[in-house]
Amino acid sequence: MHDKSKEHILVCLSSSPSNERIVRMAGQMAQAFGGTLTALYVQTPGNTAMSSEDEARLQTHVRLATELGAEIVTTHGDDVPTQIAEYARVSGITKIVLGRSGAERRHFWNQPSLTERLTELAPTVEIHIIPDADVVRHTRRPMLAIAPTVPTLRDLVLTLGIQAAATIIGFLFFRLHYTDANIITIYLLGVLLTSVSTSGYTCGLLASALSVFLFNYFLTEPRLTLVAYGKDYPVTFAVMLGASILAGTLAAKLKAHAELSARDAYRTKTLFDANQQLQKAETPADIYRTTATQIQRLVQRDILIYPAMQLDEPADQKAYAADSAPATEATAFLQPAPASASSITSAAASDSCRKGYLYPADGGAPRSIPESAREPEVVDWVWTKRKRAGASTEKFPDARCLYLSIRTGQQVYGVVGVSCSAKAPLDAFTSSILLSILGECALALESRHNAEEREKAAVLAKNEQLRANLLRSISHDLRTPLTSISGNADALLHSYQALDDDSRTQMITDIYDDAQWLTELVENLLAVTKISDGSVKLQLSDQVVDDIVAEALRHIDRHATEHHITSDCGELPLLVRADARLIMQLLINLVNNAIKYSPARSHIEIRAFREAEHAVIEVSDDGPGIPDTQKAQVFEMFYTGSKRVADSRRSLGLGLSLCRSIVHAHGGELTLHDNTPHGCIFSFTLPLSEINLNM
Known about the structure:
- The chain has about 700 residues and is an alpha/beta fold.
- It is built from 18 helices and 18 strands.
- The strands form four sheets. A six-stranded antiparallel beta sheet has the order 8-7-6-11-10-9, sandwiched between helices. Strands 3-2-1-4-5 form a five-stranded parallel beta sheet, sandwiched between helices. The chain has a five-stranded mixed beta sheet with strand order 13-15-16-18-17.
- Helix 7 runs parallel beside helix 9 and helix 15 crosses helix 16.
- The longest helix has about 70 residues.
- The protein is elongated.
- The chain starts with 7 loop residues before the first strand and ends in an 8-residue tail after the last strand.
- About 35% of the residues are buried.
């Protein structure tokens, strides 16, 4: 969709020599008005017989419009003004740029000029006429709207065969005494069949004249002469000739329209398929591969792609060596360049690290292009100038491929090469589809790039939030021991003499224990942080679960005396392979959470038992439990439960997230389920040691 607040300029493409100047003027207008430019080519049935010179000139105009930033649009129809006016209406065109040749009416009996028709059909659109009279005088159109074409031998044989068959059937009708009207319909049918079965209008016109001649020569009295006795025969012949010409012309037009409609349908389907496949592509490699596949369907040639980023190659892909591949016409351009082309294939410094990939026309796996088969100077020029170059162009015409850039605006996402070895240059229709596919590819790559940028921005924002939450959570975990240390130190400082020896010893012991606790907390926090990013290795050793549980219970929260805490590790000792310090920190966090969220005098139990090849350790309580809506979130880092203040007493803080990281580092899983009749059970697994203590 175009921005309605901006000018939208439409210029019509043609094979006229003056069209280049008109396209340039339209580009300058679009740049001056800061608007968008669309180049429209209306293909009529008469354009199918375009000469090679006109076809080359039309392609030049299409490339010029593309270089000026125009969107190329192709449509078809008999009535050119109607097609232009209808497109202008549905596309929001504000200005149409024409040449003076389209504004002239040379005789009063001519039909209204293109400008007059457009003014009538699109009265709200401004029409700008660019003077080109000097050129028009040398490029007058032929008086006949139908351009004659030279028929092929096949078409001539087919025309003569159909007319011979019509004559034989007419002779049978004559012998059966059918009327002349019935015989004439047979010849009309033959003219229609000839127009449908042959190319252009020439054979249809020839069949029209031939049918009158054969009817007069073989089927009118006197037969085998061109003399007719009936006085009404001249009128019959004239009407028959006119009807035959009209029927043949209409049939040829319908056939041409059917061909144009089929091409439009193919173009639409190709672009639709390309758009769908590109939307499904998940990686840049998929996008480039899809683009190459769609272009191959269009041109049936080998495709080269020089992406803007390094692609991940499958393990079975190997650098393509031209001397080891079958020598085919399609891959001949990959052979080392001849000496005469050294100016094209000389290594460019800026392209020395650019890697290319060949997508064979036979549908084989993409291969890396060897340096000996590359044309780096052409690729670098296309990359820098963002214009086409190579075969069938004025820039590097000796190149073996036609190179085009994959770009949106000023951003280049790669260069595509189309093999042109022993092939005719791409026509305007194919070029327009090719440019559309490359545009879709560029949009897909840009969308993926934008998505990655948004994802990076989201990660940065999340990291900033995690950093802020980390500070609040650490302050929460450090507050209690720091307050205890500060209080005990203050009492010793100001009331040392008033305290007895036991009190002083207890306070010093508490200060030491809290300091050790803080040291271990910080060390464990750093260790878990390193575990999360994979930068630390666990200090695994064989440990008895009873010892880990007993040590952890000596470092739990001071409010533990308000609860009934028990442990049950079974009659036989469980030996696990684990990092003792981290597992102890894990148990401390789980027990402290149970103390924090359970009312006084509640029961907290630590159980350990063997299950298959793992030891299962559970920490259960009979508190209020955790609602089902929060169970999936309690293991998230800095999740704060029903309260959003991270340093409040009801905060879940860092504990559970750190517990999960520790368990995952040991190859286990931390789970949460309800206790009966109420409360929570946190359960995790550890691998058993290979040492068997059972006698």
